[in-house]
Amino acid sequence: MGAFSPDGRWMACASGDSDPTTEVFVRAYPDGGSLRQISEGAGFLPKWTKGGRELVYGAPSPIGMAMMAVGVAVEGPALVLGKPHQLFELPFTLLASATSFDAAADGNRFAVILSSPAAQAIAPKRLHVTVVLNFFDDIRRAIEGK
Prior knowledge:
Elements (H helix, E strand, L loop, with lengths): L1 E3 L5 E6 L7 E6 L3 E6 L6 E5 L5 E8 L2 E12 L2 E4 L3 E6 L10 E3 L6 E3 L3 H7 L12 H10 L2
Antiparallel strand pairs: 1-2, 2-3, 3-4, 5-6, 6-7, 7-8, 7-9, 10-11
């Protein structure tokens, strides 16, 4: 469960080699170096925000799952890490899949896949999702038809 930073210089990963609890780590890429632990207590599914200024990950919480964030800044060859802080909590846990959530480019919004019971508890009025493919092709055809 690794994720490369947008500039490709860092890789975040979840690992639990010696313990059943996974933690989130980061290391330089491709030259490696030692792992630096990001999470405090547990963490999984790390992802970089599109701007590369934050690393977000899931962590267990009393009600299910917490979305955590750590500020990051590159200073020369070093990565300066902030302190992990909770963004929000959800009353369920994510599937162990890299596609369970994603952060918007600005890091202010998240898309999260909810299971049926959890989805109904959080958004009972949203019963479907509409996906539009080839949107601009449809617009061009509509304009040409007028």
